[in-house]
Design goal:
The chain is mainly alpha-helical. It has helices at residues 2-12, 15-31, 35-51, 56-72, 76-92, 102-109.
Length: 110
């Protein structure tokens, strides 16, 4: 379902929907324990954010899911870099948006 969502958001949506669909697919792949594919889609999520000068809120989620995927895939050094990038973005997230980041922040800090 997440793969289908990404396919159709690429056709019908903007970069924002594509980025969020990449995030959702990375999360689904983590649930399926397909860590390598999760990392690839998390990287794509981050790439879409960078290419479109996304807000810290969007970049936070990209780097967060990338760090989580890298950790679960056993790449601790890459995870440490992505984790720090996620937390750096989180520091710049608007106060009224921080509540939406709590689950990922907790996951990054555990």
């Amino acid at each position: 379902a997440a793969e289908g969502g990404l396919k159709y958001w690429k056709l019908a949506g903007t970069w924002l929907e594509e980025e969020r669909a990449e995030y959702r697919l990375a999360r689904s792949l983590l649930q399926a324990q397909n860590h390598a594919s999760a990392v690839a889609h998390a990287e794509r999520c981050v790439d879409v954010c960078i290419a479109n000068n996304a807000s810290p809120f969007e970049r936070f989620f990209g780097y967060a899911v990338l760090a989580i995927a890298q950790l679960r895939g056993g790449d601790r050094p890459a995870c440490a870099v992505s984790r720090q990038r996620a937390l750096d973005q989180y520091a710049m997230v608007a106060a009224d948006e921080k509540q939406w980041c709590e689950a990922e922040v907790n996951e990054l800090r555990s």
